[in-house]
Design a protein that fits this description.
101 residues, mainly alpha, two-stranded antiparallel sheet, 4 helices, 54% helix, globular
Length: 101
């Protein structure tokens, strides 16, 4: 990574943190409780924003097809179903309101 890319990732990390916190407040979901895991997830989202153009979930494989890949923008189209079935989304950023898997 270059210094410019590092700086861009840091800026985008702040953006995605605010976005995720707002979403958690609105949705009633819980956020990843482990600070290190949360940091890795937010950094992964920011890195994808810088490199791929949007906050694509780090756990999703992108297809290169804009319409299909839009479904993977965080919070992705799949997260609510995954949370209902598994207790958390695939990348473990969001959890059920009770915080249990």
């Amino acid at each position: 990574m270059t210094d410019n890319e590092d700086a861009a990732i840091a800026r985008e990390r702040d953006v995605i943190r605010r976005r995720v916190m707002r979403y958690v407040g609105e949705s009633g979901l819980k956020l990843q409780p482990d600070a290190k895991k949360l940091d890795l997830l937010l950094t992964g989202l920011a890195r994808r924003k810088v490199r791929k153009g949007d906050f694509y979930c780090p756990c999703r494989v992108l297809t290169g097809l804009a319409e299909e890949d839009r479904k993977a923008v965080c919070p992705c189209d799949y997260h609510l179903k995954e949370i209902a079935e598994e207790g958390c989304c695939k990348c473990e950023l969001f959890f059920k309101p009770d915080g249990k898997k």
